[in-house]
Amino acid sequence: MALIKGSQTTLLIGVAVSLVVGFLIGSASSNLGKGGGIANLANLTQNDLYTSQSATVQGKITKVEGKMLTVTNSSGKSGELELSDNAIINKIKTGGRAINTATSSTDLTALETDKDVTLFLQMTDGKYKVISVNYTPPLPPVPTLPPVPKK
Length: 151
Prior knowledge:
Protein name: DUF5666 domain-containing protein
Helix content: 10-25%
Distance between the termini: 32 Å
Low-confidence stretches: 29-35
Organism: Candidatus Daviesbacteria bacterium GW2011_GWA1_36_8
CATH architecture: Beta Barrel
Strand order of the largest sheet: 1-2-3-6-5
Mean pLDDT: 75
Shape: elongated
Order of helices and strands: HEEEEEE
Radius of gyration: 19 Å
Number of domains: 1
Number of strands: 6
CATH class: Mainly Beta
CATH superfamily: Nucleic acid-binding proteins
Structural class: alpha+beta
Largest sheet: 5 strands, mixed, barrel
Number of helices: 1
């Protein structure tokens, strides 16, 4: 059995993490689809039975105005979401053979539009607010195999 090299290990870990995150996001977003998606998050009310309520949106930020984000989800529905006062913006930096590094910021200038993002929301004072913005790193290119020579 051959040992797995560092870059292969990093790729396998990245794939495993992506699968887990994708499963969790899919599970959360399937529950949101029944209520009309992003636009209806503002109309939901807090249930007093719970100590907190959360939601997840996967898509792209299309516009930023102050603390308001216009977001289009992966199904094409769009709406506005408000950032909480202490929202965290997470980005994963990739570079060549170097191990991926993550950076976190509370600086709103770190927000970027038209990139894949996962937003985590929590209900605060009866209204959902974005508490975490997580940019999804681009997938590595799929290697292509050379054509099989014809006999």
